[in-house]
Amino acid sequence: APPWWGPLLVTVWGGNLNGWLVHNTPLWFLPAMLSLLTALWLLGQRLSANTALAVLATAGLLLVWLPGEAQAGRWPMALGQGLVGGFFFALGRASDVRWLPRHPLAGALALLSSVALALANGRVDLFSMQFQQPLLYLAAGGLGAWGVVTLCGIPLLQRPVLQVLGRHSLLILAVHMPVLWLVRGAVRAAHQPETWWLLAGACALLMVLMARWRDHVDTVRATVPPSP
To answer: What are phi and psi of 130, to 5 degrees?
Structure first.
């Protein structure tokens, strides 16, 4: 068994150390995102924005295709995972190009194709840098990124509840696993059937309430005059 401080160290490191796991599994994404944005900023000091994105996309492709990608999962601050994510980040930015189809139907078809390819590829784990078949992994992720960005522009999705979820996506990422654990524990303690729809519904409700509370706090702070 790892020491009590092992999961905390892995959370800060953002990569795989001695097989230890992050204490809150999704939080490995935070150092990966920080590494990605730092790399983009450093490249932007010397290169144009489009060239910097192209460099990031190329680095992500190489890490997925070349042998030894698992070792890149041990780099500090999840740099390897961040660079792989840079490929999809660059695709998301490229979705602003006008020649790409922006029709909602095109976005829906892209998402459905992404799901089909992901199912064909099987389970992947970016934290452990396990991609199965690289071509299917990249195609599924690329279509998914394009589909999400395309569908986010649909007026139907500009609902207040969805806007709340979008503004607080980082909060949802950080707390959804502990909330699921708490709800699962409550369900088991009450000797009720553990159904996924109940867990998912309770989790979504709690996260929305937390997001609304945060919005309320931000509103109150904005109305308080600054101290002299």
So the answer is: -115, 115
Nearest CA to 210 among 183, 179, 187? 179
* pTM of the shown model: 0.70
Adjacent-strand bridge partners of 130: 125
Are the CB atoms for 127 and 121 separated by under 8 Å? no
pLDDT per residue over 7-28, tens digit each? Answer: 777 777 777 677 676 666 777 8
Quick one: CA torsion of 58, 60, 65, 71, rounded to 10 degrees? 130
Question: With contact defined as beta carbons under 8 Å apart, do 12 and 24 qualify?
Answer: no
Question: What's the first-to-final CA gap in the chain, in angstroms?
Answer: 54
Residues 6+ apart with CB under 8 A from 172: 165, 207, 211
Q: Distance between CA atoms of 131 and 129, rounded to whole angstroms?
A: 6
**pLDDT digit string (tens) for 150-169?**
887 777 777 777 777 777 77
Distances (CA, A) of 99 to 26, 89, 96, 103: 35, 18, 9, 11
